[in-house]
Design goal:
Number of helices: 13
Mean pLDDT: 91
Radius of gyration: 19 Å
Shape: globular
Largest sheet: 11 strands, mixed
Number of strands: 11
Length: 329
């Protein structure tokens, strides 16, 4: 096991037995509604993953370790503590050295999930290319980390505030597959469609799981992005959100808002424009993707078990290094 990992007994046992596990980031909790609403979100995500048939593994940083599978008391601590720093990949070393708390992003959660041997991560929406990136070069670290980790990311597309067209172009350049599960359109977080199509589509979980597994078995080193939109009744009006974001981008330029401050600034503008409905929509996004991630993890575990069985079959002519042990790299 990686020396910086601290796995809960439940997660460690599930991994040891080859049962499906889903990793969850903690930034969505610490930068969601105020306490205790954020704790309710965390517990709802836990239930959603279990409803999907998998073991949830909420990931955070505490006491100089990567905590994978946070206990109830740890979730309470994370939810109740204000101003926990966001821990992307560039921030990990200093937060670990401080011994304090860190809320993981998609990028850092990918790294930690791979260390732990968890092949599926759930998030509401991935980061991507920001709208003013041709000038600012503001591109999320999520995209680079997607090229490095063999972890499937189940999400509702990219955040609405991003330049979706450029994000999809960049993912194509990086060789990261984007597969819509039973959806033709690439979602935009709490909007069912970004106006752009998913590059690929799968309508059956078995096909999706095989595509993920074979992508890695073929030698590809990066992630697979799986998209699924929020339910229509929970979604926000895309045109209304788009108008609000465009105006917020212009205002941010006038106010000199840039870098890490851009995302919360633009999300706040979207919340204001929708009369606060974005919070409820965001919760619905997180829960729907977590539930689907549980199902994807189960299908992937079955695919991998079948592949191991085929490898062991007499006369198969296939070579295998055997099943990975918990926390292997």
């Amino acid at each position: 096991m990686h020396p910086l990992l601290r796995l809960s007994d439940e997660v460690e046992q599930a991994l040891w037995e080859g049962r499906p596990v889903v990793a969850l980031e903690t930034t969505a909790i610490n930068h969601g509604p105020p306490y205790p609403g954020n704790l309710e979100w965390a517990l709802a995500l836990d239930r959603a993953v279990r409803e999907g048939g998998a073991t949830p593994a909420m990931i955070g940083i505490a006491g100089g370790r990567f905590v994978v599978g946070m206990s109830g008391s740890e979730l309470e601590q994370f939810a109740a503590t204000e101003h926990i720093p966001k821990a992307s990949t560039r921030d990990i070393g200093l937060i670990l050295a401080s011994g304090g708390l860190g809320a993981t992003t998609v990028a850092s959660s990918l790294l930690i999930a791979e260390h732990a041997g968890i092949p599926v991560l759930s998030t509401g929406g991935i980061g991507g290319v920001h709208r003013n990136a041709p000038i600012t070069f503001d591109i999320s670290a999520d995209l680079m980390e997607l090229t490095r980790r063999q972890v499937a990311v189940v999400c509702s597309g990219a955040k609405t505030i991003l330049d979706v067209r450029l994000t999809l172009e960049y993912l194509e350049t990086l060789g990261v597959p984007v597969i819509g599960y039973r959806c033709a359109d690439f979602p935009a977080y709490y909007c069912t469609s970004s106006g752009f199509p998913n590059p690929q589509r799968a309508d059956e979980l078995t096909t999706l799981a095989a595509a993920i597994g074979l992508h890695w078995e073929a030698g590809a080193t990066g992630s697979v992005v799986v998209t699924s939109p929020v339910e229509a009744e929970d979604a926000l009006d895309g045109d209304r959100v788009e108008r609000a974001v465009q105006e917020a981008v212009r205002q941010a330029e006038r106010d000199g808002v840039q870098g890490a401050a851009s995302t919360p600034y633009l999300l706040k503008a979207a919340a204001t424009a929708t009369g606060g409905r974005s919070a409820a929509a965001g919760r619905a996004v997180l829960i729907s993707t977590a539930r689907l991630a549980g199902r994807v993890a189960g299908a992937l575990a079955e695919h991998q078990a079948a592949e191991r069985g085929a490898d062991r079959a007499p006369g198969s002519g296939r070579q295998t290094a055997g099943p990975a042990t918990c926390g292997s790299e």
